[in-house]
Each structure stands twice: as structure tokens, then as C-alpha cells.
Design brief:
Elements: H1 29-51, H2 55-68, H3 74-77
């Protein structure tokens, strides 16, 4: 054996204070495109289903229209049909010349 060739020196001990940062994981283009297509399909489905007409929605609108066409509430029906300035809080006219104002008929 040749004494001039020495054995390799042992590696120095690891004195690092921090751990090695993790290596970045990259997505392939195929995975990114598949995700974009899936997201686009979900958005398209939401738009189509949200903007389409549904029979149950039309029924609610018809019921609301019938309820609104029923006439005024009871409290308005019981109100006096003849109002003038003396019916206000002060009980005195507001200075309007009631002789020149046109008379309005109460609603039927």
C-alpha cells in the first residue's frame, strides 16, 4: 500500500442554524389549464342557472301582483274623504285662498 495517499477527510459537522428551505413545487401547464376549465364551467353553470326563468319564481310574482291590486289598506279606507286646512294640527287655514283653488273629488 502506498502511504502517500491518505484517506478522505470526514465531512465537517452541519453547523447550520436554519433548516434548508423546501424546494418549490411547480404545477404543469396541463394541471393549470384543467383548473381554469373547471372554474370556467362552474361559473358558466352558475350564470345559466341563476339567469334562467323558473316556473316557481313566476308564481310568486303573480301572487304579489294580486295582493297589491287588492286596494288600499284598512287604515286608509277608514280615513275621511273630505280634508281641508282646518283638519290639520293647528286647525287654522294655511293662508290659501280656498275659493280660487279647484275642488278635487275624492277617489272612488
Amino acid at each position: 500500500m502506498n502511504a502517500s495517499v491518505s484517506a478522505p477527510a470526514p465531512p465537517p459537522p452541519d453547523l447550520a442554524l436554519r433548516a434548508r428551505p423546501p424546494s418549490p413545487k411547480r404545477l404543469s401547464r396541463k394541471v393549470i389549464f384543467a383548473g381554469l376549465i373547471l372554474a370556467g364551467m362552474v361559473i358558466a353553470f352558475a350564470l345559466v342557472s341563476g339567469l334562467s326563468e323558473r316556473p316557481d319564481r313566476r308564481g310568486d310574482a303573480a301572487e304579489t301582483a294580486v295582493g297589491a291590486a287588492g286596494g288600499p289598506p284598512e287604515s286608509i279606507q277608514q280615513a275621511s274623504a273630505d280634508y281641508d286646512a282646518r283638519a290639520l294640527i293647528g286647525g287654522e287655514p294655511l293662508g290659501l285662498d280656498t275659493e280660487r283653488l279647484p275642488r278635487m273629488a275624492p277617489p272612488n
